């Protein structure tokens, strides 16, 4: 029996590492066994970088086309809002926008019942 595909939501850092030539991330994103999703926030973060050349922009767009975009819908926005409320007095206020962006991606993965691939994650990629 063939191994079943792994499905996960990739954090922006996964794509950045891929684009920077990190072999582990290239293997993860290029594997036909992995079904990779990303958020609209990740797309914006990658394409909004100041000073991108047209070649770099095209390379990012081609990479994103290989994977599945998940738009932020009402359910995701509500889950994100609950996370913000829950942690408002803690880390999010101290860490600012970056933590909020990561929590939006986490909310997206949670609602889709998928694992979340992050650069700092020490466990294997795959479904939660």
Give your account of this protein's structure.
- There is one protein chain.
- By secondary structure, this protein is of the alpha/beta class.
- The chain has one domain: 5'-nuclease (Rossmann fold).
- It has 7 helices and 4 strands.
- The protein has a 4-stranded parallel β-sheet, with helices on both faces.
- The longest helix is centred in the C-terminal third of the chain and has 15 residues.
Task: Spell out the blueprint of helices and strands.
Elements: E1 6-10, H1 12-19, H2 23-30, E2 34-39, H3 40-47, H4 54-65, E3 68-70, H5 74-87, H6 91-95, H7 97-111, E4 115-117
Parallel strand pairs: 1-2, 1-4, 2-3
Helix pairs in contact: 1-2, 5-7
Question: Which key terms come to mind for this protein?
Answer:
128 residues, alpha/beta, Rossmann fold, 4-stranded parallel β-sheet
Low-confidence stretches: 92-98, 121-128
Distance between the termini: 21 Å
Q: Based on helices, strands and strand pairing, what is the structural class?
A: alpha/beta
Oligomer: single chain
Biggest pleated-sheet summary: 4 strands, parallel
SSE order, one letter for each helix or strand: EHHEHHEHHHE
Q: What is the top-level CATH class?
A: Alpha Beta
**Total domain modules:** 1
Strand order of the largest sheet: 3-2-1-4
Mean pLDDT: 75
* CATH fold label: Rossmann fold
Query: What fraction of residues sit in β-strands?
Result: 5-15%
Number of helices: 7
- Morphology call: globular
Portion in helices: 40-55%
Q: Measured on Cα atoms, how large is the radius of gyration?
A: 15 Å
């Amino acid at each position: 029996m063939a191994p079943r595909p792994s499905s996960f939501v990739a954090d922006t850092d996964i794509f950045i590492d891929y684009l920077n030539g990190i072999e582990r991330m290239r293997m993860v994103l290029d594997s036909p066994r992995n079904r990779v999703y990303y958020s609209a926030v990740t797309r914006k973060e990658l394409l909004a970088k100041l000073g991108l050349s047209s070649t770099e922009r095209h390379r990012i767009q081609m990479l994103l086309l290989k994977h599945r975009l998940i738009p932020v819908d009402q359910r995701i926005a509500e889950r994100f809002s609950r996370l913000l409320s829950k942690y408002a007095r803690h880390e999010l206020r101290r860490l600012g926008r970056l933590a909020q962006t990561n929590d939006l991606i986490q909310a997206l993965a949670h609602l889709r019942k998928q694992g979340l691939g992050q650069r700092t994650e020490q466990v294997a990629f795959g479904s939660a």
